[in-house]
Amino acid sequence: MAVPRVVITALGVPGAGSTTLLHAMYDVLSLGVSQGQSYYLRAESAEADLELRRVWKLLADEGRFPPRRTERPVTHTMTLRDGRADLAVAEWTEHPGDGAEQLAESDTIVLVLDGGVLGDPLDDTTRVHAAGLIGAARMSFLLQHLFGLRREHGGACPSIAVVVTKFDQIARGPDKSEERLIREVRELLPLCFEPGTHTMVCPVRAGVFPGAQLSRVDPELVSPRWVHLPMLFAVMSHLDRLRADELAACREQEAALERDERELRRRVGKTLGLTGLAALAGPWQYAVVRGGVAWGMQAGGRWIRGRRTGGEDRDEVGRTRAAFRRVGEALGRPGRLLPAHRELMRRLGEVRERIREIDEGRDDRSCQIRELGEHLAPVPIFRSGRRREPEAGAPSPPSE
Ligand SMILES: Nc1nc2c(ncn2[C@@H]2O[C@H](COP(=O)(O)OP(=O)(O)OP(=O)(O)O)[C@@H](O)[C@H]2O)c(=O)[nH]1
Ligand SMILES: [Mg+2]
After folding, report:
1. Are 16 and 163 in contact (CB under 8 A)?
2. CA nearest to 189, candidates 144, 140, 117, 146
3. List of E strands, the chain
4. Among 159, 179, 305, 349, whose CB has the most other CB atoms within 10 angstroms?
5. DSSP class of residue 79?
């Protein structure tokens, strides 16, 4: 199976923390994360790896944040691997949010919200201000545009990772901050929770710093948290979509094979209504003898040619009747049907087994989705606005 490509677009106002997130994510995942299944990220070339790492090292070693106002859009191509194989090739683009067309191909949209703006609980007045600062209106416009395009041309909506950066700046009050953030996000970006959406809300941080717009910090304070989860979510939601697509294709194939099988039965049934039938060797499945002419029928039920027999031969009439009976009996028992029918039933059996495998989550892709889901258990994921229940034994949210 070809390694799937996942197109990821990160949108955020200048200063929201997109570039820091990207480099922190690469650093964490290029080293690898391990908990049950392990995951590793690899840039497409040694030079690209060096560049991604260099920017992060500036922060981790010298306390200097990446250069601001990154030239955008800029795309990084990386391969995500689990312990066994390549899972997906991810194209991660930092997008300025000014050209809606470029977004159309995205499988996942990462909405980067500046956590420095969401630090304190919002009320009706401050919410309007915060919505302006995080660029909520533009994000909603772009999402509506995208959803509209997908509805028009068919296809699933891209999944959405709402990433709240600078989690170290989020005030910890009596109200649990993660729950408050989720409520806030739902009010600021309700479109992310509409029917048909698949959305993660993920607070991240590069470290615990004394401010939200510093250019230099003490490198000792660098301690990235959950920065790799948006990438794992993007790949998981893409695999999930491929799984749904394969299931739909299998169901279509099953319906088509069932139609063919009914048609074959109908034709055979009609043939049996004629005067006589003889089982023939060679490419023919069986033949009808009528008026001294034997007609052969090939796999798939197409008449192929007629051949003269030696007229009314008593023995042949006897053999024809016996074959007629045998085919009639066989029709009631799928295991012993005509070869063409047997082949149809074999393919139908294969397709039905694949459907069962996917339905019961026994196929490779379902296993990969489950394993990625285990890593994502600490953050809330919503389908059409409904929160996924955390997996049993999931780690608890960060407590600092
Ligand atoms: N407290 C805190 N500040 C952060 C964190 N991540 C980023 N910042 C601050 O946010 C600033 C902007 O981060 P960038 O990653 O450059 O943001 P950007 O979205 O790429 O910004 P532009 O390239 O200008 O569009 C940084 O210079 C830091 O001051 C974090 O985890 N915690
Ligand atoms: Mg930047």
Report:
1. no
2. 140
3. 5-11, 33-35, 37-43, 74-82, 86-95, 108-113, 159-164, 198-203, 205-207, 222-225, 277-278, 286-290, 293-297, 303-308, 381-383, 386-387
4. 159
5. E
CB-based burial label for 388 (10 Å; 0-12, 13-18, 19+): middle
Cα gap 67→113, rounded to integer Å:
19
For residues 118 and 137, give the distance between their C-alpha atoms in angstroms, rounded to a whole number. 16
Amino acid found at 357: E
Q: Is the CB of 69 under 6 A from ligand 1?
A: yes
* Higher-scoring residue by pLDDT: 390, 104: 104
Structural domains of the chain in order of their starting residue, each with its CATH number: 5-226+378-387 (3.40.50), 248-359 (no CATH)
Query: How many angstroms does the Cα of residue 101 sit away from the middle of ligand 2?
Result: 21
Q: pLDDT digits over 44-70, tens only?
A: 999 999 999 999 999 999 999 998 877
Nearest residue to 171 (alpha-carbon basis) of 156, 162, 181: 181
The best mutation among 19, 20, 117 to test binding of ligand 1, ranked by most ligand atoms within 8 Å of the C-beta, falls on 20
d(CA 247, CA 105): 22
- Burial of residue 251 (CB within 10 Å: 0-12, 13-18, 19+) is middle
Q: Which residues have a Cβ under 8 Å from the Cβ of 253 and sit 6 or more positions away?
A: 351
Instruction: Supply the angle between the helices 46-62 and 18-31 in degrees, to the nearest 10.
Output: 110
